[in-house]
Amino acid sequence: MPKAGRLPYPEARQDDIVDDYFGTKVPDPYRWLEDDRSPETKAWVEAQNEITFSWLASVPEREAIRDRVKRLWDHERFGLPSREGPWTVFSRNDGLQNQSVVYRARGLEGAPEVLLDPNVLSEDGTVALADQGTAFTDDGRYLAWASASGGSDWRTWRVRDVATGEDLPDVVQWSKFSTAAWRRDGTGFYYSRYAEPAEDQALRGVNKNQKVYFHRVGTSQEDDELAYERPDHPDWGLGAAVTDDGRFLLVYQTEGTDPKNRIFLRDLEDPTGSIDPFLDAFDAQYEVVGNDDDVFYVRTDNGAGRYRLVAVDRRDPDPTAWKTLIPEDRDRAVLSSASMIGDRFVVVWERDAHHRLRIHGNDGGVEKEVALPGLGSVAMSGKRRDDAFFYSYTSWAWPTTIHRCDPGTGESTLFREPEVAFDPRDFEATQVFFESKDGTRVPLFLVHRKSLERSGQNPTLLYGYGGFNVSLTPSFSVAVVAWLEMGGVWAVANLRGGGEYGKEWHEAGRLGNKQNTFDDFIAAAEYLIGEGYTSSPRLAVYGGSNGGLLVGAVLNQRPDLFGAAIPAVGVMDMLRFHQFTIGWAWKSDYGSAETQEGFETLIGYSPLHNIHFGTEYPAVLITTADHDDRVVPAHSFKYAATLQAAQGGDAPILIRVETRAGHGAGKPTAKQIDDVTDKWTFLSRSLDMKGSGLPGP
Fold first, then answer.
1. Is the pLDDT of residue 693 over 60?
2. What separation, in Å, do the N-terminal and C-terminal C-alpha atoms of the chain show?
């Protein structure tokens, strides 16, 4: 083996493990790193962190970067308010609080009072309110809330009396990928859970056989009623919802991360009723937006790759009987989301990866368009009975603002606007389009100072994801603003595999078409160089999770194209990803090495298995976390050990392993500031940014 670069990387033992995939022998010398609990692995991680943090500490600009990131972060931020019985509920962060605090107020003008402060749950802020981890009873009496510890996907549910702010004795554990769905009478809620894992498997054991339970307020979890299970389909994911009128229980069934789903239904007014099939062909994606008695309003891509809204009578759910209320857009816009508010449909349309907000009548006709400031993204909060709704607007350098809108008139008023330590008018965001390898037209967002010159020397960070039907639309980030102030260009490519143009765009970047995603990303890099924004030594690539896979793949295919790379919490071992936690669910996008066709596709681009020994790789900073039970850290561990051994040049191959953190959700503010500081510090040296607009006071 060629020698590694100049850094004294920790010695990593190589075992003689070889797997046979359909006659192809594949070595796996670092499999011992999959056991993140072993003393040997822990010692290796500690030694790697020591090298990484020593290297970062040697960069003179690091503290200046940290100071500026912290200053930018320190601004008041609000979450979308919601009406919950007599209360208006919203979240707020005063700037540097590790976790946002949930407040309640009587009406819009009442004095806010703390309802739930996650910051008191742990000294270091690593116990957080779980994503989608709050649900209120219809009358606003009770709040079901879920905490997540150390960044894990596991969540624990509790019940709080909203008026008193006190928790009831209820504790519901071993829930994951679940919301809480209250019965309208407030007697209890539905939730999803898995069997309790063995202690040493909690963060890496496979999660299957998800079940739906009903928890009655004031009782022990041991007494929870099993509402629905499918032991005949252990790979089915099951989640519960209750319609706004309280009449129907909906059980959504998914298979892995495939956008397609089934819906099962129970009439809760029938005491002897059962959960029966409703939309169960598993031929499309279905989302119930609302209902009038037995007629359900459903957003679906059945017969419409960019989605439509249809009315389905449960007594005759055959597609031939559906009534289309909002048809598929003919001009490539995607019906991204829809809500019933004030007896109207409030719809977010996604066109070329940015949003438009429209109000449609209950017959589907367009009534109003809500004017937005520019190329940005919106999110909504509102219920059918509400006479107004809230929406947030954000863009790349535009901090999130909250607006209140009357669905009858379409008029909106500014509700909350943060004060920030920079002037958004100093920057500009534009959208361009480039051609990929096969001629496909791909969107690219570019954000930079208005005074930027195309000198070919601008440090540029190209970000991408390209998978799982996920769209990358504009969003505000303090980290991005800090990068722009350093003189950087922020570029975001909307790659095939995402959901920016609906089903066809997703299909074009999954399974056997995954190489299209990588080709799109490489073409975006070549566009940035060709148009004079940057050059290879000043260009870095960055992506997380599936985006980490993306970065690892293009780094192997075009190491000459980039000056640095940051693969974050990436899926790097494409032959074994399905053997940990929820990884098996990703086979719908990736396939798997369990089949010969899947193996032949995956071995062609797997980041771990396509590292070429002796190649001069650019500087790489790999990031992961010890509590990541979504993409287990073994992916990054094995990838880092292999890349360090293979490096034929002198550029550093570093790995940063965060403690008491997971895949990203719930990470406390202090850790987020440290993370951004270290990434930008790494890039400032790797892209030779000294003196090129580093932050001042």
1. no
2. 47
Give the separation between CA 493 and CA 534, rounded to whole angstroms. Answer: 16
Q: Please provide the average confidence, as pLDDT, over all residues in the chain.
A: 96
Quickly tell me which residue has 């409030």 as its tokens.
346
pLDDT at 199 (0 to 100)? 87
Q: What type of residue is 54? A: S
At residue 657, the 3 state secondary structure works out as strand
Cα→Cα distances 386→365, 527, 686, Å: 20, 47, 52
User: What pTM was estimated for this model as a whole?
Assistant: 0.96
φ, ψ at 673 (rounded to 5°): -65, -45
Which residues, other chains included, contact 269 with Cβ-Cβ below 8 Å and sequence gap of 6+?
A: 247
| Residue 213 neighbours by CB under 8 Å, 6+ apart | 190, 191, 192, 193, 224, 225, 226, 227
Question: Does residue 692 surpass a pLDDT of 50?
Answer: no
* pLDDT tens-place string over residues 155-204: 999 999 999 999 999 999 999 999 999 999 999 999 999 999 998 899 99
| For residue 107, pLDDT beyond 60 | yes
Give the C-alpha separation, 256 to 253, whole Å. Answer: 10
Residue 614, token pair as written in the block: 């002796």
H or E segment and range at residue 93:
strand 87-93
576: amino acid identity, one letter? R
Nearest to 5 by CA among 665, 647, 658, 640: 647
Give one DSSP letter per residue of 526-552, joined into a string. Answer: HHHHHTTS--GGGEEEEEETHHHHHHH
User: Among 377, 412, 545, 636, which one carries the catalytic annotation?
Assistant: 545
Quick check: 559 and 618 in contact, CB under 8 A?
Answer: yes
Average pLDDT value for residue range 415-436: 96
The phi and psi torsions of 221 (rounded to 5 degrees) equal -60, -30
Q: How far is CA 584 from CA 60, 544, 588, in A?
A: 44, 19, 9
- Let me know the angle formed at the C-alpha of 339 by 334 and 345, rounded to the nearest 5 degrees: 85
Task: State how far the Cα of 642 lies from the Cα of 615, in Å rounded to an integer.
Answer: 12
Element (H, E) at 542: strand 539-544
| 59 has pLDDT over 60 | yes
For the four alpha carbons of 364, 370, 376 and 380, in that order, the dihedral sign comes to: negative
C-alpha–C-alpha distance, residues 589 and 509, integer Å:
8
Is 381 annotated in the active site?
no
Check whether 330 has a pLDDT greater than 90.
no
Domains of the chain, first to last = 18-70+426-686 (3.40.50.1820)
Catalytic-residue membership of 412: no
The yes-or-no verdict on residue 697 having pLDDT over 70 is no
The pLDDT tens digits of the residues spanning 596-627 come to: 999 999 999 999 999 999 999 999 999 999 98
From the list 152, 506, 663, 686, the catalytic residue is 663
